[in-house]
Each structure stands twice: as structure tokens, then as C-alpha cells.
Amino acid sequence: MAPIVYATVPATLQAAIDIAKRYEAGFIMTQPKTNNYIETEVTGQLEALTVTVQQLLRKKKEEAYLAKIVKAIIIASDAKNQDTS
């Protein structure tokens, strides 16, 4: 809560303005920087999203690799069955 200052002469008014500015500057300096907090939060979320996407891509590559192996096994098995028939 800000103090209320009454000034009757210009010098007192200027002094009150100067004091108010100093209080305001001190208040601003002690407040957390919301933009930095938001930036940090968003950066953290983007990093987490990046990790998740990388994991999904890795899993997709592994599944594609396993599918190729299974397909090769099936082809080899079919070829072996045709040779024995």
C-alpha cells in the first residue's frame, strides 16, 4: 500500500514526487520479472516437448526397423517352404 503525501508548496511537492519515484523504483526492483518467469516456463515446456518428439521418432524408427526384420524373416520362411515343397 502506497503512503499518501500532501504537499502545499512546490518544493514539498517535488520532494514528494522524488520520494514516490524512489519507492516505485525499489518496488519494481523487488518484484519478480514475470516475463522471465514465463520465458523460463515456456522454454522448459519446449524442451520437454522436444524430448517427447525425439522419443516418438526413435520409437517409430525402431518399429520400422523391426517391421523390416519381420518382413525379411517371413520372406525367408516362405522361400524355405517353397524349396521344401
Please, could you describe this protein's structure?
There is one protein chain. With 85 residues, the chain is an all-alpha fold. It has two domains: 1-31; 44-85. It has two helices and no strands.
Q: Strand count, sense and closure of the main sheet?
A: none
**Count of alpha/pi helices:** 2
- What is the overall pLDDT average? 77
**Total beta strand runs:** 0
Helix content: over 70%
Strand content: under 5%
Which residues form runs of ≥5 with pLDDT under 50? none
> Structural class of the secondary elements?
mainly alpha
Please state the CA-atom Rg, rounded to the nearest Å: 35 Å
Sum this structure up briefly:
The protein is an all-alpha fold. 85% of the residues lie in helices and 0% in strands.
